[in-house]
């Protein structure tokens, strides 16, 4: 209820923002000082709710010729509200309304930004709080896509390519890092892991399944797990159970329920991603996850299907390629590239499609130091020569073109 009340207030305020830039006022320093205070508040945890009305008022009153940073924050605030409405469920109309505000506000910000660029001014205090250009383009395009405005979304993402931020429109990390080869949407295990790791993963699936089944039998199945609330899917039928989060081992879950799984996918046996997870991801039939591109290319994502065969028209799309989960099988994909999931029904093995997800440090990062940073701590010592040799082997196997030196 609190959410809806503040939403109504903000919607009302939004309507009051004039469609064209307000008239310039002679002094801008007071305006700047106030605005910086609100931008700072926006960045505190859950500070966006209090600061949104103030930021909106500030754009309305301000000198107006250059408030694009503030406008991008306002758009970002609307986007957070749209996600909350999505995860609240059953508020699609309100969500769409809010997404339209996201889109309109980004568009207004962009035109002010372009004007500002052409003026070549450098005295603009709001730059202290400027968002990454990639963040802005990612979210603006996502909002357009959620509204079904695909062509407009692509135009926004293409800007990122034209501005040299990304190599491909489909893959939109916050920060593009150099990799070897062109990259693929999906990889087989042999293309990203040394043979002994492939064997360890494949031979672990049965044990992982046993641990899952025991958990369910003990009354600790997916009904008791955390519902996914990123605001990316249209139903409340996606749950997760984390085992490792950013390298941090979930002791209770690992020691009491998933000992073997945590060992196979723990730092001693698996080069996990410093920013990434090992987790179970469970979906019921009739679950749809919107297209989205992950924020980092420093990891690749492994999926191993543990239980629950899906219907023939269920799939995961990454970039231009679709795959299905075969129970007992695994694949890896580049999570920074756009992906989308549709599970129409689970046809065998119970009501859930159970996948074990493990993020690995991206073995195709070109620079050894980038790789070292991408990898979680606690594993074996990492030696540049050994890593380069193993990367060479993987590159040969994956057929990824190795650039001539
Ligand atoms: C919200 O927007 C989506 C995408 O355009 C559309 O499919 C859906 O019907 C809209 N929902 C409502 C309730 O207007």
Automatic annotation (TrEMBL):
Keyword hit for Signal: yes
Entry superkingdom: Eukaryota
Pfam families named in the record: Asp_Arg_Hydrox
GO molecular function: peptidyl-aspartic acid 3-dioxygenase activity
Keyword set includes Signal: yes
Keywords: Signal
Xref: InterPro entries: Asp/Arg/Pro-Hydrxlase, ASPH, IPNS-like_sf
Boundaries of every Aspartyl/asparaginy/proline hydroxylase domain copy: 206-360
Coiled coil: none
Gene Ontology CC annotations of this record: endoplasmic reticulum
Signal sequence annotation: 1-22
Similarity-based family: Belongs to the aspartyl/asparaginyl beta-hydroxylase family.
Protein known as: Aspartyl/asparaginy/proline hydroxylase domain-containing protein
């Amino acid at each position: 209820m609190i959410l809806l009340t503040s939403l109504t207030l903000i919607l009302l305020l939004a309507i009051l923002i004039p469609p064209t830039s307000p008239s310039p006022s002679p002094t801008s320093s007071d305006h700047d000082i106030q605005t910086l205070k609100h931008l700072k508040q926006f960045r505190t945890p859950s500070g966006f709710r209090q600061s949104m009305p103030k930021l909106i008022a500030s754009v309305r009153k301000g000198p107006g010729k250059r408030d694009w940073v503030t406008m991008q924050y306002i758009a970002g605030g609307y986007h957070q509200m749209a996600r909350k409405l999505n995860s609240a469920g059953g508020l699609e109309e309100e969500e769409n309304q809010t997404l339209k505000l996201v889109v309109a506000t980004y568009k207004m910000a962009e035109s002010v930004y372009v004007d500002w660029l052409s003026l070549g001014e450098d005295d603009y205090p709001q730059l202290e709080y400027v968002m990454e250009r990639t963040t802005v383009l990612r979210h603006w395009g996502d909002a357009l896509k959620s509204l079904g405005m695909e062509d407009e979304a692509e135009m926004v993402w293409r800007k990122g390519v034209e501005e040299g931020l990304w190599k491909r429109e489909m893959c939109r990390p916050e920060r593009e890092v150099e990799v070897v080869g062109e990259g693929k949407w999906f990889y087989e295990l042999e293309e990203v892991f040394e043979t002994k790791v492939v064997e360890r993963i494949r031979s672990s699936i049965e044990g992982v399944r046993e641990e899952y089944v025991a958990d369910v039998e003990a009354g600790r199945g997916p009904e008791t797990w955390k519902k996914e609330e990123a605001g990316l899917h249209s139903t409340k039928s996606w749950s997760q159970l984390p085992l490792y989060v950013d390298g941090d081992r979930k002791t209770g879950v690992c020691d009491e329920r998933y000992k073997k799984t945590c060992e196979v996918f723990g730092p001693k046996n698996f080069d996990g991603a410093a920013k990434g997870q090992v987790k179970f991801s469970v979906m019921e039939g009739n679950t749809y996850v919107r297209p989205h591109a992950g924020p980092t290319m420093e990891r690749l994502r492994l999926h191993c299907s543990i239980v629950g065969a899906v219907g023939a028209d269920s799939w995961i799309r990454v970039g231009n390629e679709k795959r299905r989960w075969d129970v007992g099988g695994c694949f890896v994909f580049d999570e920074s590239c756009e992906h989308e999931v549709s599970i129409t029904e689970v046809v065998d093995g119970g009501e859930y499609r159970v996948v074990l997800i493990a993020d690995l440090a991206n073995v195709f990062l070109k620079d050894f130091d980038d790789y070292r940073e991408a990898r979680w701590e606690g594993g074996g010592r990492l030696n540049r020569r050994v890593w380069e040799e193993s990367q060479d082997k993987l590159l040969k196997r994956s057929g990824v073109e190795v650039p001539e030196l």
